[in-house]
Fold this protein.
Amino acid sequence: MKKIDVVHFLLKNLSDVPQRETATAFAPTNIALCKYWGKRNQELNLPVTSSLSVSLNQKGAAVKLKINSRAHDVIFLNDQAVDLNSEFSQKLISFLNLFRAKQKWNVDIEIKSNIPIAAGLASSACGFASLVLALNELFQWNLSSEKLSILARLGSGSASRSIEHGFIEWHAGKEETGMDSYSKKLAAEWPELCVGLCIVNDQQKEISSREAMQRTIETSQLYSAWPEKVSHDLISLKEAIASHDFELLGRTAESNAIAMHATMMDAHPPIIYSSSKTLHMMQKIWELRAEGLSVFFTQDAGPNLKLLFLKKDEEVLKEKFSMMEIIEPFVMPACF
């Protein structure tokens, strides 16, 4: 099955003509506590394993779509026009083409992101999720969150987890069509939980997640142990979330991230996203934990760390990591 087939199936009997002139939507970025690393189907972005994340409420991407009368799309990223021939634009346009196979329409796309692009902070996740949410509004499809997560997944796998806020589990599914591979929100909140963004490098990474995943699957001997590791970690994380056991959550998330990066380092050629600053920060976190401070980290496909801690330790950690931006995933800001 191709992406276009999935789109046609999910939108069967729904409008293929925009019902509004404009539509806007916001989607949060998400930080995986149990990682998605590896595809069983690259065309449909179907994962080898399930994964679990927490969204970062006000951090993410907002998209505005406006029907235009031109013969082409126009794309703006953070108020700057983007070359339509760039890799960034071509990926967006290819995705939009899935929804205009029958009816031709073009749009002005305004994207505003408050996180670095392609730096290991799931910018593609919130980008494609916000685009799908805006299309849902533009066409008035009124799709369920599960169907929206499937559509978002076609743009970027982790976008499946950015349709909603909170703890999100992306089910790997087993069907070749991918219709059982979608994300669902867990019925749990944790107001005291904090995530600290420690940006050591906001530049675009040299090796994309897509390329790194495939190289890991094809060449890393350690990857064979990854699915079993994920299976155990998912159980532990859901237990931790249900009982608000922070030590279990932090220990499991940190172990999962280290394991993912170990499989990459075992690839050929090795994939190493960590910089000397990343390693220095890890060491600092381990030293603080040895001193009795309950703080853990997770790391995605980039050099930047995300600290996990509870609200009661916020002031102490702000002193230790002055450049850290603190997010409270379950406390929405007043202006949200």
In short: The mean pLDDT is 94.
